[in-house]
Amino acid sequence: TPQKRRQGRYSLFIDDDFFIGLDEEVLYHGKLKVGQELNPDKLKEFVMREEYTRAKQYVLFLLARRLYSCHEVHTKLVQKGYEVPTVEKLIADFVSKKYLNDRQFAESWIETRLRLRPRGPVVLRQELVKKGIDREIIAELLAPLQSTDELVALARKTLLKKKNYQNESDPRKRKQKIYQYLGQKGFSPDVIRETTRRILEKSLEI
Predict the structure, then answer these.
(1) What's the per-residue H, E or C state across 147-182?
(2) Mean pLDDT across the stretch 123-140?
(3) What is the rounded distance in angstroms from the CA atom of residue 41 to the CA atom of residue 39?
(4) Per the count of CB atoms within 10 A, which of 8, 31, 110, 143 is most buried?
(5) What is the end-to-end Cα distance of the chain in Å, rounded?
(6) How many helices (H) and strands (E) does the chain have?
(7) Distance CA 87, CA 81 (A)
(8) Mean pLDDT for the chain?
(9) pTM score, whole prediction
(10) Dihedral (CA of 44, 45, 50, 56) sign
(11) Spatial distance between the Cα atoms of 161 and 115, rounded to a whole number of angstroms
């Protein structure tokens, strides 16, 4: 029977006892009819279909807000209590339909980071690893960030987010603040050293 308070949802009763709520999509594909006899295997199939449909709707809701990696989706679904076989099937289906794409996610992540919250390659790599991105994809996408000039420019952009070091009159302490901040943001010692040299020599305005 249709649920009064939830449009598109139906209640399935077994011998007049409520058994489970079903999405209309599950109902349609299952070709359920009033008075139909169902064996345990058929009931289990409906339960699995319903779980898959609810998981799919949840992931579509997430993807409407931003891109997600496969690992992120897997983690969120398991935390929501969905069974691992359902989660893995849904992710495989979404990957085949290109709703999920780890490479596209990583490209977007790096672009957004560099534009809004600059980070060095070390931190970017760590972040993407935590997102479950394949290390070969990470290495390929971070490859352009190799030249010293590019990294120094990125380090300079990162420093624009933290200007209090400019108020430090002691060159030694100023240098120490720059080293500490850029190190936390994922830049290598060589890049930090070169960036600091250019700043302190006033060859690069900040």
Answers:
(1) CHHHHHHHHHHHHCCCCHHHHCCCHHHHHHHHHHHH
(2) 95
(3) 6
(4) 110
(5) 68
(6) 10, 2
(7) 10
(8) 86
(9) 0.72
(10) positive
(11) 12
Residue 169: both structure tokens together: 């009159």
Contacts of residue 145, Cβ cutoff 8 Å, sequence gap at least 6: 121, 124, 151, 154
Determine the 3-state secondary structure of 79 from DSSP: helix
d(C-alpha 96, C-alpha 63), whole Å: 15
Tens-place pLDDT, residues 27-43 = 777 777 788 888 888 88
Find the farthest-apart pair of alpha carbons in the chain and give their distance in angstroms, rounded: 85
Strand partners, 18: 13
Q: Which two tokens stand for residue 39?
A: 């064996």
CA atoms within 13 A on the CB side of 200: 18
Question: Which amino acid appears at position 141 of this protein?
Answer: L
Distance CA 171, CA 200 (A): 8
Cβ neighbours of residue 34 under 8 Å, at least 6 residues apart? none
**By the 8 A CB rule, do 21 and 11 touch?**
yes
